[in-house]
Amino acid sequence: MPDPRDARETVTDMPGQAAPARDEAIRVEGLRKSFGRLEVLKGVSLTAREGDVVAVIGGSGSGKSTMLRCINFLEHPSAGRIVIGGETVAMKSDGSPADRRQIERIRQSLGMVFQQFNLWTHRTILENLIEVPVHVLGVPRAEAVARAEALLARVGLAEKAQSYPAFLSGGQQQRAAIARALCMAPRAMLFDEPTSALDPELVGEVLAVIRDLAAEGRTMVLVTHEMKFAREVASHVIYLHNGVIEEEGPPDALFGNPQSDRLKQFLKSVG
Amino acid sequence: MTALAGAAASTLDLLQLAPPGWGGNLLRGLANSVLIAAGAFGLGLGLGTLGAFGKLYGGPVLRDLLAVYTTVVRAVPELVLILILYYAVTDSVNQILLAFGYERIQISGLAAGIAVLGVVQGAYATEVLRGAIQSVPVGQIEAARAMGMPPGLLARRVTLPLMLANALPGLANLWLIATKDTALLAVVGFAELTQQTRQAAGATKAYFTFFMAAGLLYLLLSILSTWGFARLERRARRGLPEVRG
């Protein structure tokens, strides 16, 4: 597999960027997305460099989940450009990926965590973790199992390796889903409201795992309703409203001193 | 009393495996029935899988063709289909062979039976499997796509095993129907269980004995099948909590 970074474009001509910056992991440019006549995203851009934690906040229907799902083409952009690790995803005119192998390779480098966990119910937790490494990435089984067991221990689920997902609590399932994404050794993680489907008392254990990942310098884009958490872990926060970026910046500035009335109102309403 | 004992003895004589008993013929008929049913069920499963994926993910032309297939086959009585396909297909194959200067051939009843019943089974299986695939939680398929799983592997490792739990009750029905539809092949003279039974009964005038025996054999087959499918279903539903009312 060629190193995707070989195809990296120079970014030195971009204004406002210090020259020896960290590599770009994810760049979204002018992203638009319509469902029929409803335009959900109206030209959104973001950049996540290696080690960045970009938190995306906004009300329901603001387009934040759609934006995240466009990054790995679970939704097909109507316009715009997605660049992962310096490699631009080739798109057809309808926004669908032009090269199946390219999009599969790029998806393998992005670990996605869903609101509803989406573990495979017919496989044990361990089997969930090694499925893609063994059957898609060609990792030797013993090696994948060792990696999976280490990851399960890390998220506190070592004793659940042989259990089926349906017998775990929501918080345990989500921790397992995070471990499953990590087991592919992704370049970056995408979190789509990872705690929104959880009972309040189970939110903390999942946030602890994500906080741990942020602390070790993982690149991630995190769509969330947890404002306190976003402020704590994010290096950059984006406030999305009606499909446009209303305001963005470092967490302390955004949460401590919001500029736009909409963001002030939003922060007041979420508490 | 002696008359009753005599009747029982003669029944056993009639059902003996070696001639002049007819038991061996009945068992050979049963074996043929099972063979045809298994072949037709397998063919139907293959056609049904292709049909279901075609109907769900195929282009408009393919979907229309599959709609015609499932509509026509499910609309026409199976007996009529068997007569049409058996005689018409045999005849047209021979017409083609003659046109190219070959000899006429006799198509084996076994192959024809499997082909005809398989086409019928395929139409029903298409709908059973389509429904089962649609009931697979979409998030689990999305998770596989999001991890870069290629479509073929995704179908084999995620969609098919997940839909099996939903499909097995319907497929078990289809299998039981297949075992009994083999009796329809008696009309084209194929030596399956029903045809063998009719022959034995006609030759000995012991109608009650032979048709009861055949009925018991069909019952035995379906009890075994039900047990087998229950096991398969338990395996397919592993990992899913039991739902009880």
Automatic annotation (TrEMBL), chain A:
InterPro entries: AAA+_ATPase, ABC_ATPase_HisP-typ, ABC_transporter-like_ATP-bd, ABC_transporter-like_CS, MetN_ABC_transporter-like, P-loop_NTPase. Keywords: ATP-binding, Cell membrane, Membrane, Nucleotide-binding, Transport. It is a peripheral membrane protein. Residues 1-20 are annotated as: Disordered. It is found in: Cell membrane. It comes from Gemmobacter lanyuensis. It comes from the Bacteria. Gene3D superfamilies: P-loop containing nucleotide triphosphate hydrolases (3.40.50.300). This is Histidine/lysine/arginine/ornithine ABC transporter ATP-binding protein HisP. Belongs to the ABC transporter superfamily. Residues 1-11 have a biased composition (Basic and acidic residues). One of its GO terms (cellular component) is plasma membrane. Pfam families: ABC_tran (PF00005). GO terms for molecular function: ABC-type amino acid transporter activity; ATP binding; ATP hydrolysis activity. Residues 26-267 form the ABC transporter domain.
From TrEMBL, chain B:
Keywords: Cell inner membrane, Cell membrane, Membrane, Transmembrane, Transmembrane helix, Transport. GO terms for cellular component: ATP-binding cassette (ABC) transporter complex. It is found in: Cell inner membrane; Cell membrane. PROSITE patterns: ABC_TM1 (PS50928). The chain crosses the membrane at residues 33-53, 65-87, 107-125, 158-178, 206-230. Residues 30-229 form the ABC transmembrane type-1 domain. GO terms for molecular function: transmembrane transporter activity. InterPro entries: AA_ABC_transptr_permease_3TM, ABC_transp_permease_HisMQ, MetI-like, MetI-like_sf. The keyword Chloroplast does not apply. It is a multi-pass membrane protein. Its main location: membrane. It comes from the Bacteria. SUPFAM superfamilies: MetI-like. Belongs to the binding-protein-dependent transport system permease family. HisMQ subfamily. NCBIfam families: HEQRo_perm_3TM. PANTHER family: ARGININE ABC TRANSPORTER PERMEASE PROTEIN ARTQ, CATIONIC AMINO ACID TRANSPORTER, MEMBRANE COMPONENT. This is ABC transporter permease. It comes from Gemmobacter lanyuensis. The lineage of its organism: Bacteria, Pseudomonadati, Pseudomonadota, Alphaproteobacteria, Rhodobacterales.
